């Protein structure tokens, strides 16, 4: 049985982790984090579920990690991501599971963000022999396919020297995430919401010789959670892309590494079907945001006087034990731990950690 050292996995170990998940018929949750509370909660959740896990930061999440008050916002996006990755390199091993460090959507405007993180990653690589991140995402799905793939090829060239992997996007995931994308327009023609297998084949042809990559394909998935019926998930689109590459190149089953964006609020059967078509990563952001915030709301509601007075003006009760931020932040962390048990169950990753 394949076993990897616990902690952040990169390079050949990352490829092994992805291949093992696909061969084992399960996928890993990819959870957006914005600070040490959410990051630690995700590590704890993975340890409890005995599942390996993907931690990712959006550009806004990285900025928040560095501190919303940091004067240079661009630097904050770069250094916040670096800080989160270093946090994980230091602590993840202690949780006894494998952790993938990744960054989320970077559109054309954010290419310099990815390049600046690579500059930091190269310094880290020089010192440690390991990349800082396992992978980054470049989402140029709003550009022409030629621009999308040539930029992805250029960046992957640089990344593969350190054994890093690139996630690309083909077809547009609906909804908006952290300023990237747009709010879902229910009346719009949604053919763009479905990735074309020919585009996937083109990406495979161009990127396979350069390095390891994965594809966020659109099959009706959207970011955010909307009322039921608005979204028609068509996982068979993923199967068609796999079949086309398999047939053209005579590869084995499910040659592509596929990523499911907008996993929040999805039905279990559609998730299982998508995983069967080679999805190894499902992004969950909206659901874990709610899981983090909901217990805080309940805690404040149940202890409302402790959030108005340090000492109760009526009976002199001291409230220090209740307004200590660790109280409600711990409740928030526990919310994420609980929600992710369900995600690991849905994705089949529960109990499947290959850390040994
Ligand atoms: Zn996404």
Structure description:
The chain is an alpha/beta fold. It has 12 helices and 11 strands. It has helices at residues 11-24, 36-49, 59-66, 73-91, 111-128, 145-160, 197-207, 236-249, 268-276, 286-302, 320-323, 325-347; strands at residues 7-8, 28-32, 53-57, 98-103, 135-138, 165-170, 176-177, 180-181, 213-217, 258-260, 279-284. An 8-stranded parallel β-barrel has the order 2-3-4-5-6-9-10-11, surrounded by 9 helices. α2 (36-49) packs across α12 (325-347). The chain is globular, with a radius of gyration of 21 Å. Residues 183-189 have low confidence and may be disordered. Bound molecules: zinc ion (ZN). Zinc ion (ZN) is lined by residues 105, 173, 177, 223, 261, 283.
Instruction: Please give the count of helices.
Output: 12
Find the structural class using helix and strand composition: alpha/beta
Largest sheet: 8 strands, parallel, barrel
Return the string of H and E elements: EHEHEHHEHEHEEEHEHEHEHHH
Average of pLDDT:
93
Shape: globular
Biggest sheet strand line-up: 2-3-4-5-6-9-10-11
Named once each, the bound ligands are: zinc ion
Give the C-alpha Rg: 21 Å
Task: State the distance separating the first and last CA atoms.
Answer: 10 Å
Q: Kindly state the percentage of residues in helix.
A: 40-55%
How many β-strand runs? 11
Unreliable stretches (pLDDT < 50, length at least 5) are 183-189
Tell me the β content. 5-15%
């Amino acid at each position: 049985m394949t076993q990897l050292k616990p902690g952040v996995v990169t390079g050949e170990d990352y490829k092994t982790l992805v291949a093992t998940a696909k061969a084992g018929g399960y996928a890993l949750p990819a959870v957006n984090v914005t600070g040490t509370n959410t990051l630690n909660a995700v590590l704890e959740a993975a340890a409890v579920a005995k599942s390996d896990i993907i931690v990712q930061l959006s550009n806004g999440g990285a900025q928040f990690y560095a501190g919303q008050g940091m004067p240079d916002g661009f630097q904050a996006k770069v250094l916040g991501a670096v800080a989160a990755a270093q946090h994980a390199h230091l602590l993840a091993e202690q949780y006894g599971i494998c952790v993938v460090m990744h960054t989320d959507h970077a559109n054309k405007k954010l290419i310099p963000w990815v390049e600046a993180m690579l500059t930091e990653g190269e310094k880290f690589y020089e010192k440690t022999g390991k990349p800082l991140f396992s992978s980054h995402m470049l989402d140029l799905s709003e550009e022409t396919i030629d621009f999308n793939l040539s930029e992805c090829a250029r960046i992957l060239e640089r990344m593969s020297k350190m054994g890093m992997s690139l996630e690309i996007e083909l077809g547009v995931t609906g909804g908006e995430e952290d300023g990237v994308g747009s709010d879902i327009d229910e009346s719009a023609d949604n053919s763009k919401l479905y990735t074309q297998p020919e585009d996937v084949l083109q990406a495979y042809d161009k990127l396979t010789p350069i390095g390891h990559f994965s594809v966020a394909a659109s099959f009706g998935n959207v970011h955010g959670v909307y009322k039921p019926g608005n979204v028609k998930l068509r996982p068979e689109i993923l199967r068609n892309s796999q079949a086309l590459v398999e047939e053209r190149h005579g590869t084995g089953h499910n040659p592509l590494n596929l990523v499911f964006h907008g996993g929040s609020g999805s039905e279990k059967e559609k998730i299982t079907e998508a995983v069967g078509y080679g999805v190894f990563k499902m992004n969950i952001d909206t659901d874990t945001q709610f899981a983090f915030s909901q217990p805080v709301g309940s805690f404040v509601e149940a202890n409302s006087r402790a959030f108005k007075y340090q000492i109760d003006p009526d009976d002199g009760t001291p409230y220090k034990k209740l307004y200590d931020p660790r109280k409600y932040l711990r409740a928030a962390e526990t919310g994420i731990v609980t929600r992710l048990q369900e995600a690991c169950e849905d994705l089949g990753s529960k109990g499947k950690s290959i850390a040994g």
